[in-house]
Each structure stands twice: as structure tokens, then as C-alpha cells.
């Protein structure tokens, strides 16, 4: 009985995520439309015909700190935005939960973190975008091609240690996927287990 | 990083106080972080010849947790980077975890203290073994805090391993929870196959065990969420949700636990769905279920009166024990022969590709009509409206033909009363090889025949029954009423099959038969002949009408929340994540009608269903319907009732018991929060 109840509980809890198809490699990316910290609206349709990277962020998550404290994430943002790839960093923490930022704070934090994304943080406090995408963790990464299809969903790299010292020897999935996809080649590993902290919906 | 160094020095200070190993006074024997303290689980000395299990003991604050090797939807397993001198260290052994639902995710880990173990084997001739370990862990409640630490240990090698009692106890406790080889397990993995795009199904067989807790080893392939567990004939089928977009490898691993112990199935090949659930090893169990189901059939309202009267016949006779035994055997032969014939017919039709199932004979209006007439005559006879003519009486009562006929009759009247235990056995019979299927039919027959036969062969038992007397007449008259009720119900079935014309036709024939009986009793030979001719003519006319009309549309379901069966509609609802409840039913199935009346058609259920936007489907199998038969076969059943529940967002059903209670419907909607 307990198993049944837990199973039901699990299925009920995940209904919002299941009711819509979550972002799945090989399928069309879910639509979104959210404002960034400066109040500008961003929608999936705005990026039609262009490459787009989505990154889920929570400033207090040790795994986010691993990649920002070491400068790893910012250097990726810099490298790929220079190649005309759009990069949106999304905060789905609900108000009152860890990592939530209001517009003003978000602008400040963007500066403090040296964010090199295409826009200051995309703010998704109601979690709609995060749930539609099935964003589970921070950092959870998605790559969307100019046709609007997801080509990669998962972790940033293959090392789920929180220690920044492991970054140089880690295999960066996002780099591998973007480099392959931009060169017109298939992505070898289009889906990986996203590690990190749970998104605080 | 400065924090780490501070921690390091704090550790140095701390360990210089606890001088368990005097020669290692300055080495850290423990590591600390927020909400976590890690210590060695090690003996005082290592045995020279053999392997000793050591470990790291994680003392974790209440409500915080650390992780298993597959951390689940978020989180991270601890890391142990062990350097060892003069010995070999084995891989980390992970005690089986617990599912930890954290908001929208499920993690796999441990709440409270836990130990991660590993084996150490000293090299031959070594005097001392040194261990250095770099540790990293993640401890979470909702928020997570990573921790780092370094620990060392030096152990002398002695002939025997020497433990401090309390450390040994902890090691042994957790060692018991480390997965063992699957061969030693009561659970057997039968197959693993993809079920649609989103699910991987694992079938596990076991007897006499509770449902296992199964944890996937590969978190990038399967989500950690509790799999949907469906009890199958021989064990369970577990439906794991796949990570979207991940291609299937050729195999994957699981840990199977019974909540006390666990076993490891590291490489289960991913293949195709098991062929017809192949429950060969449990054929004995199925036979037993069939037998018990058959025994219970004796008590069903359509069977009990017939058998009771037969029994009175036996008690009345002054027949010798031998004669009675013969009666019992003949009756049994009648039951078994009829079951064999029906089973053979079913198998032959199945071999011919027809999609049919148990109770199929009641889908024919002619069979239903014949039963109506039969029950009507029996009921009238029980009521004493007429005496069975002495020829009829001998046939039904005392002659050998009578006992055989009673057996045949018992099977026919029993068919609609699919009782408890029978569903599973009949469902298996539908997919089993012919020989096993036939064995199940015979088993059912044996069960139906057994109580009567037992009474026949055992005078002691028969003597225990109350002495014959006038009360038997009263009881017989009383038994007429369940038979009248059966007639009413069968008339309704006929109405469902044929529409209103069925009612009228059958009712008219019953009226005509009653008139003929009265006519026949007037005593004049000519009248008797006339009565017989009229009665036969009526019945023949009715059967011809039924043959012509059997294609007529039945009146469809009444206007309520229940929708008629429509596969496209169901698939659409499932794709949209809507909850779906399917009631596989038939008018001739008593259990179905009882459930419908007491549970499904109540205001309570209707309200719950509309409140939760449940698509309620009534799959009416009263008439032969290939698509419903097909759907039943996919559920591993070939009889009704079957109740399939698809929770919102699920595409695999949970089957409810055949005897429903309102509580079970309520429970579908009120999951209680698991102890977090």
C-alpha cells in the first residue's frame, strides 16, 4: 500500500512536468516567454534561425559556484556568444526559496558574477519555463538549434564533484555538443544526467 | 579554499586529542563538515591472512541526507580517493538506499547515519598497512552543502583481525545492507523491455515475498522516481520512467531489495517483452487458484440452489454408499466433461484467431435464452407450481444420467459467476499453451465438483448434514427465489444484447410455457399433447427470432460520466496526461454489476472522477467486441471484471481487485505524503 501511495504521490507531483513534453533531444523545444532582469521579454520565437543555449542558475548552489567561482561558465558564455550563439541564464527559484532574485538584485548579481550571457538573468519565479523544460538541477543545460529543436539536454560536464579543481580534467558535454552541432555534425551524447542542486521551484 | 585549510587544522587539533592510534597521533582520523561527521570504521589490527571489511561512518544530522552510488534526479554520490600501502583495497560497497522525494525530484540516498564499506587485503608479509583518503561528499536537506576532507589510518597486521565491539557492530549492520549476488536472492529477474517511448519495464518473479524495492544503477537512463509496480501472476512488473531522449543501451543494472537485504543485478539485457508472461514455474499455483475458484463457485447464487436440491435427492435415497459414490463420480464427470468441452471450444476458437474469452457463451442470445427457460422451469418446479413429470424427475434426480446432467448444468449456470481467484487463472489460460490452459480448465472443474463429490463418498460428512424432513420442502420453495432473480437478471442481459425486443420475446415465451404447464396439468391426454406442441413451437419460434435479431444494436450506456469504449479517445486522453479509469464489464457478469452498483455508479465515485477530470470508460463486453477482447489480453486477462486505472500522466495501468470497495477508489486520489 505504501509503495502504491508513494507511486501515486510521485506521479501527482510530477504531473506539471509531464503534462507537457519536457525538452527532449531530437524534439521541438518547448515555447517560453519570460522577462529578463532589465524587463525585456525573451521568447523562443525571438531566436528562430539562431543557436540558443539555456542554463539554469542559482547563485547559492555549490555546483553553480563551482563553475562561476572558477570562471568556467563565464568563459564558455564568452566563447560561444562570440560565435553568434545566444546564451540565456535562467533563474527558476520561487520567491522565498534559495536563489530567488528580484530584477534589481539580479542585475547586481549579473555584474558580480561577470555574467557574459546574451541578457542579464531570465527571471522565471513562477517556474513555468523551468517546468516546461523539465529543468531539474542547477546548472541544467539545454542547446536548441536554429530549427527550434533540442540537440542537447543535461549536465555541463561529466564530473559531479563540487570541487572546482576537477574542471580541467572533466569532459565538458556542452562544449562537445556545441562544437559538433555548429560544425554540422551529430551530437555524440545528446542527453546526460544533469547533476547539481534541485531547482527550487 | 581558506575555509578548507581552517577545517584541516581544526581536524588536526581534534584528532590530537583522540589518540586511538598512538603512532598516528597527528593524522586526522575523522572529517567534519556542516551536518556531517565522518569517521573510520576500522579494526585495531588487520588479520594477516584474509580480507577485512573497513568503512567510513557518516554521522548525519536529522533530516539531512547523503547519497547512494546513483544519487537520483539531483545530488551527488560521495567520492573516496583511497591510497593504500602494503595492501589491496576493493571498490566501495554501497548499502541499498532509500527513495527520498525532495520537492519535484526523487533522490536515492540515506537519511541518518550510514556507512560506506570497502575490503582490505594485506599483502603477504606486510607488518603495517597505511590508508590515505581524499573525501568529498554532498549533504542535503533541500539545499545542499558539499564537504571535503582528508583522513589517514595506519593499522598493524596481526594473525587475527581485532575489532572494537561497537565498530564491528556498525560494520556488520551495514554489511547486511550491501547488495549480494542475485543467485542468492529470492527474486529472479525475468526480463527487461521498453514499453512505449517513456518506460522501461522490468519483470521480477518471486514466490512468497513482498514486493521488492528496486533501484536503477544508471541515473542517466532511468529516473529515480518510484517505479509503478504491478502485481503479476508470478511476481511483479515494475515500470521505470526513462530519462527523455536517452538511447537504450544493450543492458543496464538494478539493485533489488526486500527492505532488509538487497541483491545486485548489474547487467540485465534489454530485450523484448516477455512472451505471454510465461508463468510456467507457477502453473501449480495457477492450478491451485483455479481449484479454489471452482470451490467458491459452489456458493454462487446461480449454482448453490441447483446443487442443494441435488444433494437433497441423495439424502432422501436409501441408496447404498457405493451407489452414492457412483452418483458423485458421475456428477464430477459431467462437470469435468463440460469444462473440457468449453475449454476445447475456447482453445479451438483461439487457435482460429478469434478474440474471445471466458463467458463467451453468454454473448450468444440463444444460450442466454435457453438459460432463461431452464431457470424459469426450475424455479416453477421449486415453487411447487408443477411437479417435474416422473420422467423429468428421474432425469434430474435419481438416475445416473441425472447426475451427469446436473454436472453439465452446474457448469453452464456457473459460467457468469466468475468469482475470486478465477480471474487470474482464466487470464493465464488465455495465453498459456493449450495443454496448460486445458489443465487450468480441468482444475476449475475439479474445484467445482470437489465439495459435492466429497459429500457423496463420505457418509460421515453426509450424516453431519441435518436429517431429511419437511423442512426440505420449505427450503426448496425458498430456493426458487434466487432462481427467479436469476431469470430476471438473464432477461436483462438478453435486453442488453438484443434491445427491448429481447425482453418482450423472452417474457412472452415464459408466459406461454407457464400456460402450457397449466394446460398439461389438467390431466387430459389430448391437452397434454397440445401443451407440449405449443410449448415446443414457442421455443422454436423464439430461437428463430433470436437468430434473426442477434445482430440488432443494443441500447447504449445511459447518460452519466461513463463513456463507451473508444480506443482513440483513450489514447488521446493518455497523451494529454489525463487520468483514465476503464471498467471492463458485461451485463452477464454478476460481480461486475455488484461493483457497478456499490462502487462505480455511486455519487461518491462520480464526484471524485469529475473533480479530478478522470475519463471514465465503460468497456461493455456483453456482446462480442474484438477491440475490447484485445485490450483485455494486453492486460493479461480474458474475463471480466477488470478495472484499469491510469493515474494522470501515466500510460501504464494499475489493475484494481475484482471485488471493488469504495475505499479503493478514494485511495486512488488521496496519496499520503511519504515520511520524508
From TrEMBL, chain A:
- Keyword vocabulary terms for this entry: Signal
Keyword Signal in the entry? The reply is yes
- List the InterPro entries hit by this protein, alphabetically: AhpC/TSA, PRX-like1, Thioredoxin-like_sf, Thioredoxin_domain
Residues covered by the Thioredoxin domain: 23-183
Coiled-coil zones: none
PROSITE patterns hit by this protein: THIOREDOXIN_2 (PS51352)
One Pfam short name = AhpC-TSA
Top-level taxonomic group: Bacteria
* SUPFAM superfamilies linked: Thioredoxin-like
Residues in the signal sequence: 1-28
Q: What is this protein called?
A: Redoxin domain-containing protein
TrEMBL record, chain B:
| Stretches assigned to the Cytochrome C biogenesis protein transmembrane domain | 285-491
Q: Which SUPFAM superfamilies match?
A: Thioredoxin-like
* Pfam families reported for this sequence: DsbD_N (PF11412), DsbD_TM (PF02683), Thioredoxin_7 (PF13899)
Q: Which Gene3D superfamilies match?
A: Glutaredoxin
Membrane topology term = Multi-pass membrane protein
- Location in or out of the cell: Membrane
Q: Which InterPro entries match?
A: Cyt_c_assmbl_TM_dom, DsbD_gamma, DsbDN, Thioredoxin-like_sf
Region forming the signal peptide: 1-20
Instruction: Give the main location.
Output: membrane
Q: Which residues form the Thiol:disulfide interchange protein DsbD N-terminal domain?
A: 45-152
Transmembrane stretches, start-end: 283-307, 328-360, 366-386, 407-432, 438-457, 478-495, 501-520, 527-546
**UniProt keyword annotations, A-Z:** Cytochrome c-type biogenesis, Membrane, Signal, Transmembrane, Transmembrane helix
Keyword DNA repair appears in the UniProt entry: no
Database matches in PANTHER family: SUPPRESSION OF COPPER SENSITIVITY PROTEIN, THIOL:DISULFIDE INTERCHANGE PROTEIN DSBD
The protein's name in its UniProt record: Protein-disulfide reductase DsbD family protein
Amino acid at each position: 500500500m505504501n509503495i502504491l501511495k508513494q507511486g501515486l504521490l510521485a506521479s501527482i507531483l510530477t504531473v506539471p512536468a509531464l503534462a507537457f513534453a519536457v525538452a527532449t533531444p531530437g524534439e521541438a523545444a518547448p515555447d517560453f516567454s519570460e522577462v529578463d532582469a532589465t524587463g525585456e521579454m525573451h521568447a523562443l520565437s525571438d531566436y528562430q534561425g539562431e543557436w540558443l543555449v539555456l542554463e539554469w542558475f542559482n547563485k547559492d548552489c555549490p555546483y553553480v559556484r563551482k563553475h562561476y567561482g572558477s570562471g568556467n561558465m563565464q568563459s564558455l558564455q564568452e566563447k560561444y556568444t562570440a560565435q553568434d550563439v545566444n546564451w540565456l541564464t535562467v533563474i527558476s527559484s520561487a520567491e522565498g526559496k534559495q536563489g530567488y532574485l528580484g530584477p534589481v538584485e539580479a542585475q547586481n548579481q549579473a555584474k558580480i558574477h561577470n555574467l557574459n550571457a546574451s541578457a542579464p538573468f531570465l527571471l522565471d519565479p513562477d517556474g513555468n519555463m523551468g517546468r516546461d523544460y523539465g529543468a531539474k538541477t542547477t546548472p541544467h543545460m539545454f542547446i536548441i538549434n536554429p530549427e527550434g529543436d533540442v540537440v542537447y539536454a543535461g549536465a555541463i560536464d561529466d564530473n559531479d564533484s563540487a570541487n572546482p579543481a576537477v574542471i580541467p580534467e572533466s569532459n565538458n558535454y556542452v562544449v562537445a555538443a556545441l562544437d559538433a552541432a555548429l560544425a554540422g555534425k551529430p551530437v555524440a551524447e545528446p542527453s546526460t544526467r544533469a547533476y547539481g542542486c534541485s531547482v527550487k521551484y | 579554499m581558506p575555509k578548507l585549510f581552517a577545517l584541516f587544522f581544526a581536524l588536526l587539533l581534534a584528532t590530537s586529542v583522540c589518540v586511538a592510534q598512538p603512532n598516528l597521533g597527528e593524522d586526522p582520523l575523522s572529517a567534519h563538515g556542516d551536518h556531517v561527521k565522518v569517521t573510520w570504521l576500522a579494526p585495531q589490527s588487520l588479520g594477516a591472512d584474509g580480507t577485512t571489511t573497513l568503512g567510513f561512518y557518516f554521522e548525519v544530522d536529522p533530516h539531512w541526507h547523503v547519497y547512494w552510488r546513483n544519487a537520483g534526479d539531483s545530488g551527488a554520490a560521495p567520492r573516496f580517493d583511497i591510497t593504500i600501502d602494503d595492501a589491496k583495497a576493493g571498490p566501495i560497497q554501497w548499502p541499498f538506499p532509500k527513495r527520498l522525494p525532495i520537492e519535484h525530484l526523487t533522490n536515492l540516498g540515506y537519511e541518518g547515519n550510514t556507512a560506506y564499506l570497502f575490503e582490505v587485503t594485506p599483502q603477504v608479509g606486510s607488518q603495517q598497512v597505511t590508508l590515505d583518503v581524499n573525501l568529498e561528499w554532498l549533504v542535503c536537506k533541500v539545499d545542499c552543502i558539499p564537504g571535503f576532507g582528508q583522513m589517514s589510518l595506519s593499522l598493524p597486521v596481526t594473525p587475527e583481525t581485532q575489532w572494537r565491539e561497537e565498530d564491528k557492530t556498525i560494520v556488520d549492520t551495514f554489511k547486511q545492507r550491501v547488495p549480494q549476488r542475485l543467485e542468492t536472492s529470492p527474486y529472479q529477474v525475468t526480463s527487461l523491455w521498453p514499453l512505449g517511448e517513456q518506460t522501461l519495464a522490468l519483470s521480477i518473479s518471486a514466490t512468497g515475498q513482498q514486493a521488492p524495492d528496486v533501484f536503477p544503477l544508471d541515473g542517466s537512463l532511468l529516473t529515480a522516481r518510484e517505479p509503478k509496480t504491478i502485481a503479476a501472476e508470478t511476481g511483479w512488473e515494475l515500470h521505470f520512467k526513462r530519462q527523455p531522449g536517452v538511447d537504450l543501451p544493450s543492458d543496464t543494472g538494478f539493485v533489488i531489495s526486500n527492505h532488509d537485504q538487497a541483491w545486485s543485478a548489474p547487467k540485465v539485457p534489454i530485450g523484448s517483452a516477455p512472451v505471454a508472461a510465461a508463468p510456467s514455474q507457477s502453473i501449480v499455483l495457477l492450478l491451485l487458484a483455479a481449484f479454489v475458484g471452482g470451490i467458491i463457485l459452489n456458493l454462487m447464487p446461480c449454482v448453490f440452489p441447483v446443487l442443494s436440491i441435488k444433494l437433497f435427492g441423495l439424502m432422501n435415497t436409501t441408496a447404498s454408499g457405493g451407489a452414492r459414490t457412483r452418483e458423485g463420480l458421475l456428477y464430477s464427470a459431467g462437470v469435468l466433461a463440460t469444462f473440457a468441452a468449453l475449454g476445447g471450444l475456447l482453445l479451438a476458437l483461439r487457435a482460429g484467431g478469434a478474440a474471445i474469452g471466458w463467458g463467451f457463451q453468454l454473448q450468444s442470445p440463444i444460450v442466454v435464452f435457453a438459460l432463461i427457460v431452464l431457470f424459469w422451469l426450475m424455479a416453477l418446479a421449486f415453487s411447487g407450481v408443477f411437479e417435474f413429470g416422473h420422467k423429468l424427475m428421474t432425469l434430474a434426480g435419481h438416475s445416473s444420467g441425472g447426475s451427469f446432467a446436473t454436472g453439465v448444468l452446474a457448469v453452464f449456470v456457473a459460467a457468469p459467476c466468475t468469482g475470486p481467484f478465477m480471474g487470474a487463472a482464466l487470464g493465464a489460460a488465455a495465453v498459456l499453451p493449450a495443454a496448460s490452459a486445458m489443465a487450468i480448465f480441468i482444475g476449475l472443474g475439479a474445484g467445482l465438483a470437489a465439495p459435492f463429490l466429497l459429500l457423496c463418498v463420505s457418509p460421515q460428512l453426509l450424516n453431519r448434514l441435518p436429517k431429511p424432513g419437511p423442512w426440505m420442502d420449505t427450503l426448496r420453495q425458498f430456493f426458487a427465489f434466487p432462481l427467479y432473480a436469476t431469470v430476471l437478471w438473464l432477461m436483462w442481459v438478453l435486453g442488453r444484447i438484443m434491445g427491448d425486443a429481447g425482453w418482450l420475446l423472452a417474457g412472452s415465451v415464459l408466459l406461454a410455457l407457464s400456460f402450457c404447464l397449466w394446460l398439461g396439468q389438467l390431466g387430459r391426454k389430448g391437452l397434454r399433447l397440445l401443451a407440449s406442441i405449443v410449448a415446443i413451437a414457442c421455443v422454436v419460434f423464439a430461437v428463430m427470432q433470436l437468430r434473426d435479431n442477434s445482430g440488432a444494436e443494443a441500447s447504449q450506456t445511459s447518460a452519466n460520466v461513463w463513456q463507451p469504449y473508444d480506443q482513440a479517445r483513450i489514447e488521446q486522453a493518455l497523451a494529454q496526461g489525463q487520468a483514465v479509469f476503464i471498467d471492463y464489464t458485461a451485463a452477464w457478469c454478476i460481480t461486475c454489476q455488484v461493483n457497478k452498483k456499490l462502487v462505480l455508479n455511486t455519487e461518491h465515485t462520480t464526484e471524485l472522477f469529475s473533480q479530478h477530470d478522470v475519463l471514465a470508460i465503460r468497456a461493455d463486453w456483453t456482446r462480442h467486441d474484438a477491440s475490447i477482447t484485445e485490450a483485455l489480453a494486453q492486460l493479461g486477462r480474458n474475463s471480466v471484471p477488470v478495472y484499469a486505472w491510469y493515474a494522470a500522466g501515466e500510460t501504464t495501468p494499475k489493475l484494481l481487485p475484482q471485488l471493488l470497495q469504495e475505499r479503493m477508489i478514494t485511495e486512488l486520489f488521496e496519496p499520503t505524503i511519504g515520511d520524508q
